[in-house]
C-alpha cells in the first residue's frame, strides 16, 4: 500500500459572515490568518486560512465564509467536530477566556484519557479543545492575544459521523493506511503516522441521526497530508484502482489537491505540503492582503468588488503591530 498519510493537513468549513469569522478565529482562538484569498471554484466567497505562524500543514482551519449563507445541518456523512490541541492543564483558562467573550462552552470532560472542552463558533460549528496528556511539541502562533503557554498548537483530530461504522472503518484502515487505536462506546479512534495530535480521526456511530446538510456551520471537507506531488500522483492512481472516483490534481496555489468521498459520505482531500503559504508573500505579511492565483489576476478588480471589506487585528502581522506601537509611543504626551 502506497497511501499512508502522516496526519491531517487542514479542515475546511463554511461560514456566513467573513468579518465575524475573522474576529472569532483570530481573537477568540488566537489563530493567525495566514492567507486571504477566494474560493478558486466560486470567487464570490473568500477562502480564509488560519493556522500557526507560517500556516504549516496540520495547523490549518480554513473557511468559505459566504455572506448570508443558509444554516447547515449536522448529521451523518460529514465531519461533525473539529478538535484543536492545547497544553495540558490549560482548559480551565480557556473556559474562563471563552466565558469572558460570551461564548458558551460545555463543562470540561474527560474522554479517552484526554480532557476536552467543547463549544461552537458563531455559525454553530462544533469545536473542541483537547489537552493531550503526552503533550504537543508543535510551536503555537504567539500573537499576544493568547498566552503562549495556553495557545493552540494545531489540529488535534476530526470526528466523522456515520450511520454504520463498517465501511468507513474499513476504508480508513484498508485504503488510507490508518490503524485502529481503540473503541470507546459509540466512538472509534484511528491514527495516521505517529498517532499524536494532528494525526487522529474519530468515527462516531449515530444510526438515528439525520443525514447532514453542508452549509453554514458545517465542515465542507477534511484533508490528509502528502509530502509532494509525485507521491500524490501515486496515491491517486491507487485510489482509482480501488474503485474511488477521484478528481484530477488541482492547483490550489499553496498546495496541490485531489478529492474523493469515503464510503460514509464525507468529502476527503489529499493535499501536498508544498509549496506553502509564503509562495506569494513574505512570512511577516501573511494574510494581510487579498491574494489571487495567476489565472484569476486578470479579474482582480471585479472579484475584489464583490467581496466585503475585512478588518484584521494588528496582532495578525507582527510588522504592523510593531509599527502601531512605535506610532503610539511617538504620539504619546511627554
Descriptive account of the structure:
The protein is α+β, with helices and mostly antiparallel strands. It has one domain (8-331): Roll (2,3-Dihydroxybiphenyl 1,2-Dioxygenase, domain 1). The chain has helices spanning 18-28, 91-100, 165-175, 229-241, 300-306, 318-331; strands at 8-15, 32-39, 42-51, 60-65, 78-86, 109-111, 114-120, 126-131, 154-162, 179-184, 187-191, 200-205, 219-226, 250-251, 256-261, 267-272. The strands form two sheets. Strands 2-3-4-1-13-16-15-14 form an eight-stranded mixed sheet. Strand 15 and strand 16 form a beta hairpin. The protein starts with 7 loop residues before the first strand and ends with a helix. Keywords: Lyase. Pfam families: Glyoxalase. It comes from Actinoalloteichus hymeniacidonis.
Short description:
This protein has 334 residues and is an alpha+beta fold. Helices cover 20% and strands 31% of the residues. The protein has one domain: 2,3-Dihydroxybiphenyl 1,2-Dioxygenase, domain 1.
Helix and strand layout, with pairings?
Blueprint: E1 8-15, H1 18-28, E2 32-39, E3 42-51, E4 60-65, E5 78-86, H2 91-100, E6 109-111, E7 114-120, E8 126-131, E9 154-162, H3 165-175, E10 179-184, E11 187-191, E12 200-205, E13 219-226, H4 229-241, E14 250-251, E15 256-261, E16 267-272, H5 300-306, H6 318-331
Parallel strand pairs: 1-4, 5-8, 9-12, 13-16
Antiparallel strand pairs: 1-13, 2-3, 3-4, 5-9, 6-7, 7-8, 10-11, 11-12, 14-15, 15-16
